[in-house]
Structures are given as C-alpha cells and as structure tokens.
# Entry
Amino acid sequence: MAVTLNANHLKGFVMDHELCGIQAQLDAAHRTLHEKTGLGNDYLGWLTLPTDYDKEEFARIKAAAEKIKGDSDILIVIGIGGSYLGARAAIEFLKSPLYNNLKKDTPDIYFAGNSISPAYVNDLLSICEGKDISVNIISKSGTTTEPALAFRIFRDLLEKKYGKEGAKGRIYATTDKARGTLKELSDKEGYETFVIPDDVGGRFSVLTAVGLLPIAVAGCDIDALMAGAKEAQDALCDPDVEKNDCYKYAALRNCLYRKGKAVELLVTYEPCFTMMNEWFKQLFGESEGKDHKGLFPASVTFSTDLHSMGQFIQDGSRVLFETVVKFKTPKSDLFIQPDAANFDGLNFLSNQNMSVVNEKAFEGTILAHTEGGAPNMVLEVGGVNEKELGYLIYFFEKACAISGYLLGVNPFNQPGVEAYKKNMFALLGKPGYEDLQGALLEKLK
Ligand SMILES: O=P(O)(O)OC[C@H]1O[C@H](O)[C@H](O)[C@@H](O)[C@@H]1O
# Structure
C-alpha cells in the first residue's frame, strides 16, 4: 500500500470503540459517494478519473509538453486555486521547491494570476525579458478575475514579441469544453485547448490537463502519476474502517473534530511538500468549511516551523491535532562528516545520514506534542516519486469526499467564495453592481 495510516499516537485521544461507533456513518458516506446519491453528485468525475481519463487528450498533453520544452525557456502557468495549486505542488514535490534554479533541460516554470499584486507581475515581466516564453492559462470558469487579468498582460507580451500568429502557437488554454470567455477567446484565436471535465471541480482537478500539462513540462512522468492514482482508486474501496486507511483517516479526523479539535495541522518534514500542504488546505477547506461547520485545515513545515509555531502547538489552545505526512525513503540523503576539532559540538550528529537527524526530530516532536495534548496521526508514504504522489492525491481526494459526507455538507461546492468577489466587483464599478456599490461605500466610511 502506498499510503499507510499509523494511529499509534492517538492512544488516549481516540478510543478503539469510537471507530466502531462511526462505522455505520462511514458505510452510509461510502454508499452515498459510490451510488452518487449525495449532495454535489454532479462533481464525482474525479472518482474514476485514473481509469476514465481522456487518452487522446493525454497524448496531446504530452506532445504539447514536448513542444514547450523545445521552444521555451519559460512557461508561465496562469491560474488560481484549483487551477494553480496542484501543478505547483506536484512540481515542487517531484522536482524541488528550487526547481527553477536547478541545472535542467526543461523550461523554468513561473506561476501567475494567483494574486492581484502588481509588484509580482512586474518582477515576472522583467524575468521574461529576452527569454522565449509559452503560456498555459488555466481557468475552469474562464472568468476568474485574477487569472483573466494576468492573461491579458501575458497575452499582450507574447503578441508583441511573436506577433499574433506566433503567440497563437505558444498559448495553451485549459478550460471548460464549451463555456466561458476563455473558451470563446481560444476558439476565436486558435489556441490549443485542453478540457477540465464538467464533473471535476477545480480543487479535484490536478489529475486532469490542469495539473498534467505543467507537470509534464517540468519533466515529470505523468503516466506513473496516473498509475499511482489508479492503484489508490482500486485499493480504497472497502468501507470497513479497519481495511481502508483512507476511510480510517476520514473517520479519525471526524472523531477528533467532534471532541473539539477543530484545527487539523498537516505536517511535513520536507520543504518539497510545503505546496502540497497548500493544495491540501484548499481541498479540505473549500470542501468542508460551510454551514458554519468544518475542520480548519492548517499546515506547518518542520523543523522550520518548530522554531515559530512549535510553542503554540506544544502549549497553546488545545484545539488542534496533527496529521504528519512522512516519507519512508527520503528523496536523497547527505552523509554528515565528523570534524576533528568539533568546535560546534556537533560530532554527535556525524557519521550518519542527515535523514536520520530529520527522523529523530520527527520522533522527538511527536512524543513531545502528544504529551502536550496535541493528538497526532501519521500518514506513511513510501517515497518521493510520481507513483506515490498519484496515490496520495487520490487518497486525500477520497478522504475529503468521505469527510464531507460524514459532516453532512456538500463537499463539492464553494458558495461562500462569492461574497468577497461581489463586493470587490461592486467597489471596482463592474457594470451590474451599481446598487451594491453605494451600500458598500457607505459601510466603508
Ligand atoms: O478555474 P477557475 O474557474 O478560474 O477557478 C479558480 C478557483 O477560484 C474560485 O474562486 C474557487 O473558489 C476555486 O474553487 C477555484 O479553484
């Protein structure tokens, strides 16, 4: 099994009979999901994506990735939320958070359209000077403000640099198959397009063209990624909590939530996983956080954050539990040499691999935190590679859907996200929002 749940450190926090107690609800959540009878059942395409994905498009994704590798120094990936986090997370995890600075024969990849910061865009524009560029604009709705605005800027850059015809061969649009401004524009301009299936929501879309094209451009093996996800699809179907670690994870986090642990901290000891933490936060946060319910998903990277958030986790409000994602085999290792003078007194660390030190930090921390009243569980992952990542992505997606149904919410919508957008549009004077604008300006006085 690619992801194994170790619940040994939950002793004293969750009793064995609690898992038996929640089994009936788990059975119901499982049926609701697989029989497609629950809230949001229009958005279950991700459930069978690892076997059902469009093979013809998959081949086009690979071909486009090869073209981009051949003709571009830089790929700008424009998107936000589910149209951004998965690709970045996978690339940082599989390659490195320092990917752009590595010696490599694949293009640098920069992400844009995930904020409204002019300084960020200016920096990126200056990085692009004198370089050959391609752009992958990703937006399911095709109308999200942040990516649309960034696309306007980078499309203009490409058209000025290569002419309209040249730009056409360097712009790839990943969007809805039929609807939205982006689809219309792409058809009009003749951009190559990739589809985000109707029944796959943004935060569940990393294994569609949304994630696959940028991930392939970075030189990652997308066949292995899909194969790992398929393994999870096949393996995680038994509703028995004792036979399905994905469901056990969903059940345990729900048990903890019901006893007042309202914050889940996803913990990693690998900086390359930090963006996966961000992906996880959108997945669970947008899926569960509604109807005034839900666990608040947070994250930390250790040991970095042990020096900033460690105090709170050890000793602050007892509202949180930790889920540690732990890799059995590190991506690479480093032997610590002894030093004859031993001025720094660090010879006790020497003559061993650095991963051993990281491992002891993990063991010491889990003992300290559980002792301090923060429950911990560990998701053990084999290693850092495409197959394990595919499995882990599917594991989290399914755990998230089951968690949502256990909580009694629709895990596949995000109505709350519209509130800020409405206000922002009104304040910016978007046509149609005139009435609201007056009311808001009054409140801002
Ligand atoms: O892909 P898009 O339609 O541009 O959406 C991008 C993101 O923005 C929205 O506001 C939603 O909250 C997210 O669920 C979505 O992933």
